[in-house]
């Protein structure tokens, strides 16, 4: 624990701006003297008391509710004081300033009421809850995810993570892993006991069951990460293929300008849409072609930059121009460049647009290709099939019961665990010749698991995680 973690802290705990109610929160050791200095009396624990909030001269700042939560029965595990006033920003700033001022007032013996009280850093209240074992790291992240949730599904999943559903899964994996490590370490430390753990303890079976359970957790974590972070989808194609119309159709709003003039879109237009609660960050880009217009060339270069960073690409084709040799050649050139620029794992979905105007023969020839989608961005026909296809390439399944929200770092940690367990199986198959290597792989797997809940975390990791929180949380 760093020295700053011993300082008492204070902050406005509600969002910036005007509101009916605003909260100023103080947390630290020995907050009771500050309670008396601010409220003029002791407060009953966990009981709201209506009283005036006064400045240093006794003048009124506001009237509101004060609540005192003695340690350890508080959000942070320390003494916590919450002052609930009217939610004007000036009132809350005056109240916060009064807390800091009152903390420095001398008491008998010339000691401050609450020495060292300072403004809290972003996420510091939740960081203290973690450090004082009120929550683990995955639950702490779930608090931020619950605040940031953009869909009902994400909010419900974040709430399940906050309640400990994800952490329980990780702890179950860890307990099974610790038991297996115990058997291996016993064999290494006491070979004279002739502990044949391979057969008597069914170590191979234990490891297989552990990997099976890990696969289930990893699958749900991947779904949870997808629900939280979504995927980046870029619409690409030649000018006038209907890219902007498709973005507007998916978003259900006129976001991009649509005209018959080629090259209308000069820069990217982005919108986040939701399909079954999954956020998809859809980007419309400039039409891909050779151009002598400097502004359009910049737009096309930016389009390729967006394509290179995409999780999925919608390659839009104009069905009404499938008989034009130049158009087909340009499409083929774009397809070749896509194959060169994109990693192999990034899917490219062929979307055949303008089914409402295309000849039936063209629709049959191109629109029925496996993995492609035929639609009309103008009428909306075929949009549902495209939405389903996007979910498929994202790896989304129908939300399972009890899905919890997860982060990319959780998925990466679980993938590292899977890699270590796979290597452990190879070492186990070699039996006694490589038990020390088996023990090391199991240890590394446990380290990766512990990094999820924060039972072993570097200060750098904690700093990155909690700095993304808002001040007062």
Residues in helices, as a percent range: 40-55%
Overall SS class: alpha/beta
Distance between the termini: 19 Å
Could you spell the SSE succession in H and E letters? EEHEEEHEHHHHHHEHEEHEHEHEHHHH
Number of strands: 12
Largest sheet: 6 strands, mixed
Q: Give average pLDDT, whole number.
A: 84
What is the helix tally?
A: 16
Find the CATH topology of the largest domain.
Answer: Rossmann fold
**How much strand?**
15-25%
The CATH architecture name of the largest domain reads 3-Layer(aba) Sandwich
Low-confidence stretches: 256-266
The CATH superfamily of the largest domain is identified as P-loop containing nucleotide triphosphate hydrolases
Secondary-structure map:
Layout: E1 9-12, E2 19-28, H1 32-39, E3 49-54, E4 60-69, E5 79-87, H2 89-103, E6 118-119, H3 124-131, H4 137-148, H5 152-162, H6 165-189, H7 197-200, H8 203-229, E7 231-237, H9 243-251, E8 269-275, E9 278-284, H10 294-308, E10 312-318, H11 325-341, E11 348-353, H12 360-367, E12 373-374, H13 383-394, H14 408-429, H15 435-453, H16 459-467
Parallel strand pairs: 1-6, 7-9, 7-10, 10-11, 11-12
Antiparallel strand pairs: 1-2, 2-5, 3-4, 4-5, 8-9
């Amino acid at each position: 624990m760093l020295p700053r973690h011993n300082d008492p802290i204070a902050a406005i705990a509600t969002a910036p701006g005007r509101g009916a109610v605003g909260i100023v929160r103080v947390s630290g050791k020995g907050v009771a003297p500050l309670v008396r200095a601010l409220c003029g009396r002791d407060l009953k624990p966990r009981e709201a008391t209506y009283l005036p909030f006064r400045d240093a001269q006794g003048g009124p700042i506001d009237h509101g509710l004060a609540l005192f939560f003695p340690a350890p029965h508080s959000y942070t595990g320390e003494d916590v004081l919450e002052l609930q006033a009217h939610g004007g920003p000036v009132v809350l700033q005056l109240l916060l300033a009064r807390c800091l001022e009152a903390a420095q007032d001398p008491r008998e013996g010339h000691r401050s009421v609450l020495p060292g009280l300072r403004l809290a850093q972003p996420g510091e209240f939740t960081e203290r809850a973690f450090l004082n074992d009120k929550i683990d790291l995955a639950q702490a992240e779930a608090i931020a995810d619950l605040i940031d949730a953009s869909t009902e599904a994400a909010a419900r999943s974040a709430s399940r993570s906050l309640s400990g559903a994800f952490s329980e899964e990780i702890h179950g994996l860890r307990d099974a892993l610790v038991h297996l490590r115990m058997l291996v370490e016993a064999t290494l430390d006491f070979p004279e006991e002739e502990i044949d753990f391979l057969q008597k303890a069914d170590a191979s079976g234990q490891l297989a069951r552990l990997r099976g359970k890990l696969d289930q957790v990893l699958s749900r974590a991947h779904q949870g990460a997808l629900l939280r972070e979504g995927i980046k989808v870029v619409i690409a194609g030649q000018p006038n293929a209907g890219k902007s119309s498709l973005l507007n159709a998916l978003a259900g709003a006129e976001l991009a300008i649509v005209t018959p003039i080629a090259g209308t879109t000069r820069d990217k237009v982005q919108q986040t849409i939701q399909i079954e609660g999954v956020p998809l960050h859809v980007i419309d880009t400039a039409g891909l072609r050779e151009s002598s217009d400097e502004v359009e060339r910049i737009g096309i270069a930016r389009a390729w930059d967006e394509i290179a960073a995409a999780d999925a690409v919608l390659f839009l084709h104009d069905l009404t121009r499938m008989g034009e040799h130049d158009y087909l050649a340009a499409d083929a050139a774009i397809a070749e460049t896509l194959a060169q620029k994109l990693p192999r794992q990034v899917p490219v979905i062929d979307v055949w647009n303008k089914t409402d105007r295309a000849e039936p023969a063209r629709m049959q020839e191109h629109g029925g290709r496996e993995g492609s989608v035929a639609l009309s961005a103008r009428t909306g026909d075929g949009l549902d099939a495209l939405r389903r296809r996007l979910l498929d390439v994202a790896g989304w399944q129908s939300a399972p019961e009890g899905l919890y929200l997860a982060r990319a770092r959780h998925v990466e940690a679980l993938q590292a665990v899977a890699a270590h367990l796979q290597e452990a199986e190879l070492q186990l198959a070699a039996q006694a010749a490589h038990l020390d290597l088996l023990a090391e792989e199991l240890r590394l797997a446990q380290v990766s698991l512990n990094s999820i809940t924060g039972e072993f975390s570097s200060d750098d990791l904690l700093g990155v995680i909690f700095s993304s929180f808002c001040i007062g949380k």
